[in-house]
């Protein structure tokens, strides 16, 4: 079949009888479908309750996306033979209200305002859901949904041209728009949709050698890029894209924490400072486990299936996922036999400058890959989190270790590189602050009217580029070495300028911090002046020290730098903070055990 022709699938969309694909039917995972069906029924009840009073008010930001997802979920329980709502006539009115409201809210170009004016990528999120819903409704072909399907078809028809000509903002938006167009094209063929998909794909998939995409974001890989690529692979006959998803999921095996969280400190998006869980990857691991007969992926999918009933574990309710299983019946096959996941490793992803270490329940992360040394900017889309080390001893979690010298208000240490050392890892960086000399005679002006220019730290009408500079330099090297018992030694060497510094250790709330050498600075912040301290959660404990006296600024200051302070921003992490202070002229060794 040519990729220029729509794919018309003949297999049915759920376990409803003879039209269900026989191979899938023979290998159907009944428990999996029963769980999704029950979860979807419960989710449908929640949706009907929350929308009962006001199903048609969608003008508030983001409501079109929520409405489309609600329609998709309600459609899934309507067509699913195992649902308590199967062909339930009471669903028709809310389904039709949602569809009509979405149609009325479309602009003439077929787009919606969802966080951006007439936004193609934000519209694509809703179109993916609506086209999926349309597909399973068409496959079910129940006479009662004819009017609903006509309305949804009208929405898709109106949105297609805008998606086929409109632009995007971010890297992942390209693949999202392609997925939306591929879904529309599979139902309403249009060669312009194919041309647009091919134009975006011709840019190449933005995958790094280690398997992460260019945004390095577990959140956007799971929620946008991987699902989009899988859709394009199926509907646009680009089976090569399975390799991209496979590589990303393989990389993810080394980011998984024992409790199901995912390391995201290296992300270039919002999740670089946010807690992320694995469930958004659930169906991706399941699909590739079945497709590739991969026991490792099956083990992850099994783990996520077991955790999917925890409402705090992930962002997408399990009941919203039934529609995906009906859209792709192969997801309902039994998983292959799970294989052991990697739980004892040292993994170096050089493309993200990230090291992950795991020994059973104990893990550590070394990160030296922020974008700051290259671009000298703090901005959306850049990796700027100054956390360079994390560790876990079971339930005792050191969420963040940062170093903040008070040097020209340049802010935290952010490594320029990460490399293997003789018996560990080495992070390093060099920063400079300038004093400016008088302008050469040829650039002087009697009226003193010089250009407003940037010296790399601040702006002034000083014509900085034409001045000679006198630099002060601070060089930082951190050597990190594993010690017996899954501990770590970190040696900090800072040379050049002699200035105060603060080490900031931030522990996950929920434990107890003890130590005779601790002095309280504020409610959740302490200074370790001498000896050791311990952070304990149940039977798990991390011991840190030694304290380093009261060198440096008192009370201790963690200087985020002028780029944050000028805007009133904050880099203070949430949690229980321990500060260790000193001056850069001395070498300090931190022990974590």
The major beta sheet can be summarized as: 9 strands, mixed
What helical percentage do the residues reach?
Answer: 25-40%
Number of helices: 15
The side-by-side strand order for the widest beta sheet comes to: 3-4-5-6-7-14-20-17-16
Decide which structural class fits the backbone: alpha+beta
What is the CA-CA span between the terminal residues?
A: 60 Å
Strand element count: 21
In percent terms, what proportion of residues is strand? 15-25%
**Bulk shape:** globular
The mean pLDDT is 91
Low-confidence stretches: 1-21, 56-62
**CA-based gyration radius:** 28 Å
Provide an overview of this structure.
The chain is an alpha+beta fold and 593 residues long. It has helices at 22-26, 30-51, 63-79, 92-105, 120-140, 146-165, 171-187, 191-201, 218-235, 241-252, 282-292, 295-307, 322-327, 372-375, 562-565; strands at residues 261-262, 276-277, 344-349, 354-359, 362-367, 389-393, 396-405, 417-421, 424-436, 453-454, 459-460, 469-483, 487-496, 500-507, 512-514, 518-522, 525-528, 533-537, 540-545, 576-583, 588-592. The strands form four sheets. The chain has a nine-stranded mixed β-sheet with strand order 3-4-5-6-7-14-20-17-16, with no helix packed on it. It has an eight-stranded antiparallel β-sheet with strand order 8-9-12-13-21-19-18-15, with no helix packed on it. A two-stranded antiparallel ribbon has the order 1-2. A hairpin with a 2-residue loop joins β4 and β5 (362-367). The longest helix has 22 residues, at 30-51. Residues 1-21 and 56-62 have low confidence and may be disordered.
């Amino acid at each position: 079949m040519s990729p220029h022709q729509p794919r018309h699938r003949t297999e049915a969309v759920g376990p409803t009888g003879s039209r269900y694909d026989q191979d899938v039917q023979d290998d159907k995972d009944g428990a999996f479908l029963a769980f999704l069906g029950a979860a979807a029924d419960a989710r449908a009840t929640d949706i009907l309750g929350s929308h009962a009073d006001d199903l048609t008010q969608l003008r508030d930001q983001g409501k079109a996306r929520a409405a489309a997802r609600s329609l998709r979920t309600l459609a899934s329980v309507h067509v699913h033979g195992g649902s308590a709502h199967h062909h339930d006539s009471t669903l028709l009115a809310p389904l039709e209200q949602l569809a009509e409201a979405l149609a009325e809210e479309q602009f003439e170009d077929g787009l919606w305002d969802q966080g951006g004016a007439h936004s193609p990528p934000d519209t694509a999120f809703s179109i993916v859901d609506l086209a999926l819903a349309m597909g399973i409704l068409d496959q079910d072909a129940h006479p009662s949904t004819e009017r609903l399907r006509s309305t949804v078809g009208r929405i898709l028809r109106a949105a297609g041209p805008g998606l086929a000509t409109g632009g995007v903002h971010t890297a992942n938006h390209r693949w999202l728009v392609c997925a939306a167009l591929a879904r529309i094209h599979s139902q309403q063929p249009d060669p312009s949709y194919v041309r647009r998909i091919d134009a975006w794909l011709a840019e190449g998939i933005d995958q790094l050698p280690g398997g992460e995409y260019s945004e390095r974001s577990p959140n956007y890989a799971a929620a946008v890029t991987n699902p989009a690529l899988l859709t394009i692979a199926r509907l646009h006959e680009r089976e090569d894209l399975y390799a991209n998803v496979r590589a990303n999921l393989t990389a993810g095996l080394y980011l998984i924490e024992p409790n199901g969280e995912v390391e995201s400190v290296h992300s270039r998006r919002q999740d670089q400072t946010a807690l992320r869980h694995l469930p958004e990857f659930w169906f991706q691991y399941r699909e590739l486990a079945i497709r590739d007969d991969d026991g490792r992926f099956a083990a992850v999918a099994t783990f996520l299936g077991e955790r999917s009933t925890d409402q705090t574990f992930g962002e997408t309710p399990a009941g919203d996922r039934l529609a995906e299983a009906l859209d792709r019946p192969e997801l309902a096959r039994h998983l292959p036999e799970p294989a052991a996941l990697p739980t004892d490793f040292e993994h170096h992803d050089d493309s993200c400058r990230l090291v992950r270490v795991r020994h059973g329940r104990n893990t550590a992360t070394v990160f030296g890959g922020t974008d700051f040394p290259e671009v000298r900017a703090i901005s959306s889309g850049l990796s700027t989190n100054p956390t360079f080390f994390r560790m876990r001893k079971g339930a005792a979690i050191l969420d963040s270790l940062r170093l903040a010298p008070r040097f020209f208000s340049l802010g935290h240490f952010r490594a320029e590189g990460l490399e293997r050392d003789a018996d560990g890892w080495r992070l390093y960086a060099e920063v400079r602050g300038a004093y400016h000399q008088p302008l050469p005679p040829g650039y002087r002006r009697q009226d003193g009217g010089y250009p407003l220019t940037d010296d790399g730290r601040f702006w002034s009408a000083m014509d900085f580029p034409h001045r000679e500079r006198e630099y002060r330099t601070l060089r930082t090297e951190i050597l990190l070495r594993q010690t017996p018992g899954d501990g770590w030694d970190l040696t900090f060497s800072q040379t050049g300028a002699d200035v105060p510094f603060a080490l900031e250790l931030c522990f996950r709330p929920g434990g107890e911090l003890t130590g005779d050498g601790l002095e309280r600075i504020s409610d959740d912040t302490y200074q370790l002046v001498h000896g050791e301290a311990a952070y304990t959660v149940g039977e798990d404990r991390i011991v840190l020290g030694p304290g380093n006296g009261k060198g440096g600024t008192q009370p201790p200051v963690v200087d985020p730098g002028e780029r944050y302070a000028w805007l009133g921003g904050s880099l203070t992490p949430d949690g229980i903070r321990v500060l260790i202070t000193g001056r850069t002229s001395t070498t300090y060794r931190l022990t974590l055990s």
